[in-house]
Amino acid sequence: MAGDEDGFGAAELTALYRAAQEAVTNARRHARATRVTVAVLLAEDTARLVVTDDGRGFVPDTAVTGYGLLGMRERVHLVAGSVDIDSGPDTGTRLTVTVPRGKAGQ
Q1: CB–CB of 86/93 below 8 Å?
Q2: Band of residue 106 on the pLDDT scale cut at 50, 70, 90
Q3: What does the mean pLDDT of the chain come to?
Q4: What's the pLDDT tens digit per position in 9-31?
Q5: Which of 22, 33, 38, 16 is nearest to 101 (CA)?
Q6: SS3 readout for the chain
Q7: How far is CA 9 from CA 30, 54, 95, in A?
Q8: What are residue 95's DSSP bridge partners?
């Protein structure tokens, strides 16, 4: 983790934490990943979480979205953030969650 938590509300930080939990759980449970990397950068205007794995991947647009990913997207959108999933068959997955500083009720 790099950066300073000051200025980020509990809702924003919780959204990042829960997204990280869900991404690691999915990598272990569904992707058969042998390596998972979690990085957090707390910048002046935004916080960014990036979780990558070397698992079997999937096609995000056609995959059946489970409740975990749906809940993650809803939680992140509540703090005016975004979720981006970059994946493909046999290419692993890269999840990027970005939330702005100070946009959620604190």
Answers
A1: yes
A2: very low
A3: 88
A4: 999 999 999 999 999 999 998 88
A5: 16
A6: CEECCCCCCHHHHHHHHHHHHHHHHHHHHCCCCCCEEEEEEECCCEEEEEEEECCCCCCCCCCCCCHHHHHHHHHHHHCCCEEEEEECCCCCEEEEEEEECCCCCC
A7: 31, 32, 22
A8: 51, 85
Residue with tokens 């979780």: 51
Which residue type occupies 52? T
Measured distance CA(88)–CA(106) in Å, rounded? 37
Q: 26: part of which helix (H) or strand (E)?
A: helix 10-29
Between 48 and 104, name the one with better pLDDT.
Answer: 48
The upper half-sphere exposure of residue 59, i.e. CA atoms within 13 Å in the direction of its Cβ, equals 2
pLDDT at 63: 52
d(CA 13, CA 45): 14
| Spatial separation of the C-alpha atoms in residues 26 and 20, rounded to whole Å | 10
